[in-house]
Amino acid sequence: MPSPVGRSVGMIDADERVRGTVAYALNAELPGCLTGRILRSPHPHARLVRIDTARAEQLPGVIAILSRADIVDNPALYPYFGPVVRDQPVVALDKVRFVGDPVAAVAAVDDDTAQQALELIEVEYEPLPAVFDPEEALVPGAPILHETFPPQRGAMSADIVFNPSEGSNQLNHFKLRKGDVEAGFEQAHRIFEHTFRCPPVQHVPLEPHVAMALVEAGKVTVWSGTQTPHNIRAQLAEIFQLPLAQIRVIVHTLGGGYGSKCYTKLEPIGAVLAWKARRPVKIVLRREEDFLTVTKHQAVIHLRTGVDRDGRIVARKATNYFNAGAYADISPRLIKNGGYATAGPYRIPNVWVDSYAVYSNIVPAGAFRGYGVSQAAWAYESQMDMIAEALGYDPLEYRQMNVLHDGDTFATGEQVHDMHYRELLLADAQKAIDWRPGAEAWWQRASADGDRGAGSATVSHKRRGKAITCVIKGSVTPSTSSASCKLNEDGSLNVLTSSVEMGQGAKTVLAQLAAEAAGIPLEAITVSEPDTDSTPYDQQTSSSRTTYSMGTAVTLAVQDVKRQLVELAADQLEIGPDDLTCDEGTVRTRDGSRSLSYSDVVRRSRRGNLLGQGTFATSGGLDPETGQGIGSIHWHHAAAACEVEVDTETGKIEILRFHSSCFAGRVVNPRLAELQVEGSTLFGLGQSLFEEMLYDGGQLINANLSDYMIPSFKDLPGRLSVSVLEHPSAGEVHGIGETSVPPVMPCVANALYNAVGVRITELPLTPEKVLAGLARRSEAEA
Amino acid sequence: MRVFFGMRDIDILEPRSVEEAVAALAQHGDEAKVIAGGTALVLMLKNQLVSPAYLISLGRVPGLDGVTYGAGVGLRLGALASIRQAETSAVVRQHCPTLAETFGKVANVRVRHAATVGGNVSEADYASDPPCVLVALRARAVALSPRGRREIPLTEFFRDFYETALAADELLTEIVVPEQPAGARQSYLKFVTRSSEDRPCIGACAWIDLDEAGVCRELRVTLGAVAGKPQEFAEAEALAAGQRLGPDLIGQVAQYYAEHIDPLSDARGSAWYRRRMAAVFVRRAIEQALGAGGEV
């Protein structure tokens, strides 16, 4: 039977998607369900003096109001959550720490009543000084968000080293020490120092955050739009002090995630409100509340890079400040990935990275497609072109000269394999935009076109420029996925998995891998939605890990079933198991003389079904003091290439063509893989050109889709192409869900530079910044 | 019908005729808002920027959605015609293609199907495309109240951010775009600094009436999205009267606009940036209008 793996089969839920019948959590209903609404802080930082809910409670139709009064000194509840450090209260206890911090919640018979009740809750605040910038937040004397951490429960993930500095806003510090960086700088011929900045941006999934909860008979059930059902289960078990088995998290297909739905968000407040109301409660966030829930990290990166006489990078020191916002969320891990990533995909013998997660009084930052690598790549890929210019190299050749080869040592001290930058990724990128080495960079073209003056009447005011960038990205390591499957007596197969379908095609590729492993048609496979009562443990649907990690677990589970099939068939056929093979839904003797269908074997066995299970756990981890070790089970890599046209009168950048190259090892579904890379590219273009959350004194001022822009289809490049590259030597599947986001932003910035000679070090690349740069250029020339 | 929205109870009135609508507005005046497509007003209600006790819905009022042309009168755009209708109307495309294109630049096609011409004009959003073009075309708004019918030139209609010359009891029923002179040609440039579906950072309309010899009889230039209402400077326009519009003269007009506007700052661009863009887009709009006319 031809394997469905490697074929562009359509999404197995395509029909439901087109018909609009996908059962999103947004549409989930329970009899007697109440509407939950959240009262949020108007202050960026304040002491909570008094909350009076008496008037709101008297409003007809209000069933329950949750405030700190229900939680403080209540031995039945542990009031904090957070995937690493439990620092976020279910509702504010003593302080509020950002504009939007939940202070109370109302469960009422309908939305109107709930909203009216919010207005009747009286809250008295004592405003405190606030701090918003990560570097200012570390200055001694800055207002402190978390004076101490609450008593901790539970465990944190194995890969996380936690170095907080209590009594300061330093939430975590990741250290990487490879080689002797000072000696490296001493031997350097030239040293380059620059600072790069990125703003917070929002994920904007079409479906907002949703949670519906029911607490009865000592059991907590939550329907949630989450990417991490098992993390939600563990956190709710801590809050309610119940065994994991008494917590049930059910996840429907998500209307988009992009990292925003990783880890506990709405579930604690929803479940505790349902506990108080003794009825089911559903909370659906409004768009402006989604903006107040989680963001990409604002970041400041100071990058110091030393090169020798031949242009080889010999030392790099990076100091990264990631603005975690008011609560830790996953920042303690993200700064690790965003830390080691700052070395880029380059052979650098001496690397020193200090990567900090810093609390401040803005919306908490968390996982965001690209996961810290976008901020790092924005810095190092911008700087690569700056160094190439200073040394007179072609930017592509300069990358080829420094890029990692198979067997080289990465910044984490580990040997890297399956590196295909030179012959695959960069070559593909070069071809896609017809990059001519020695002729594309600004400094190489300056003499060629003498007409650089900005928009005189005789010269066109449009300028074109190209760029090529490349990045390296890890996947969370160590990590664990497990799956089980049921081979039914008609030969069909249920795959039970806690991987979350969020539009990326998880169900489809897992079905393809299961079909290949089982040797049965794709149509015979059904992939479950996560339900922690029945689907096995999975760490998370993020970090581009599902196809690889869960795909491997599913394959192992199917192999487990096949082993049983062969053993049972051997008994039934009275032949040794070694003389049997399984394929095309049939167990056959090797000589082909006798066979039983899977269905026959199961029926004859009288087992009802055959149960298989598979667990895939990777190992690795980094030393807490040096950041040396195994950072990623394997390394994801991508390149980007683009050509832009810049209007020198307005500063506006038009993307004429954009090409993304992503290494996939072995492709399971070519079309779905291409769509992931296309989506990543467009995601990056929005961040390149205009996406930015704007704050005024801690108040988010563009928390809606009129004032916060995401790309529309009209913003697609003139030509958009992608390559999902395989290599015969690569047996493994590489995740491709987000690898193509980080190279986009520096690619556009470098192409802008190559068009008009304007270097911008702070995203986004707005027309105004470009025009200001052009004005500075012409002043400098005059 | 009573709904709870934007933190208050709102009575929704659904008049069945223009007369009933005018009467309802006269009765509730300051406490009422008129709603048609709702694309702007619903957001304002949600964000509690307006808080009316009554919404007078025009959804069931017949006869206000026509888009017609009459010789000697010009184009008549009913207040309830959708933006999309105005954009795709054969008579608008024939008699004023620039206006049709301008309607086509509003938001996205989904919004344009719901939003109405009258709603767009009476909202008086500073960052909207049609107002600045309608001002340049010297369109008039027709308003009805128990006191009678009056026509308000759009040059006087827009007062400031979200402020118009409509009295509390006046209902906007129609926009009349007068017949344009045979030698007139127009252009409208919408410049966005963020997503393609964003509102304009600046919008520039040039209206030029040329004689047979290519000499300018009259120039009008209006700028949208730079201040509380469309900006037009007669002194600059007067420079062009009786002149050929060459690069120097166009540059002078553009410079005048750039120097005399008092631009605002918002997320789409600072005042510094808008002033520079005024110079660029006044020039480009004039050049484009000249090009649109063919010979010069």
Question: Overview of this structure, please?
Answer:
- The complex is a heterodimer of chains A (782) and B (296).
- Chain A is an alpha+beta fold and 782 residues long.
- Chain A folds into three domains: 25-128 and 208-256 and 260-286, Aldehyde oxidase/xanthine dehydrogenase, a/b hammerhead (Aldehyde Oxidoreductase, domain 3, Alpha-Beta Complex); 298-412 and 432-469 and 636-781, 2-Layer Sandwich (Aldehyde Oxidoreductase, domain 4), CATH 3.30.365; 479-617, Aldehyde oxidase/xanthine dehydrogenase, molybdopterin binding domain (Aldehyde Oxidoreductase, domain 4, 2-Layer Sandwich).
- Chain A contains 19 helices and 32 strands.
- In chain A, the strands form nine sheets. In chain A, strands 3-7-1-14-11-12-13 form a seven-stranded mixed β-sheet, with helices on both faces. A five-stranded mixed β-sheet of chain A has the order 9-17-16-15-10, with helices on both faces.
- In chain A, a hairpin with a 2-residue loop joins strand 11 (210-216) and strand 12 (219-224).
- Chain B has 296 residues and is α+β, with helices and mostly antiparallel strands.
- Chain B has three domains: 2-57, 2-Layer Sandwich (Uridine Diphospho-n-acetylenolpyruvylglucosamine Reductase, domain 2), CATH 3.30.43; 67-177, Uridine Diphospho-n-acetylenolpyruvylglucosamine Reductase, domain 3 (2-Layer Sandwich), CATH 3.30.465; 185-292, 2-Layer Sandwich (Enolase-like, domain 1).
- Chain B is built from twelve helices and 14 strands.
- Chain B has a five-stranded antiparallel β-sheet. A four-stranded mixed β-sheet of chain B has the order 1-2-4-3. A three-stranded antiparallel β-sheet of chain B has the order 12-13-14.
- In chain B, strand 3 (32-35), helix 2 and strand 4 (54-57) form a beta-alpha-beta unit.
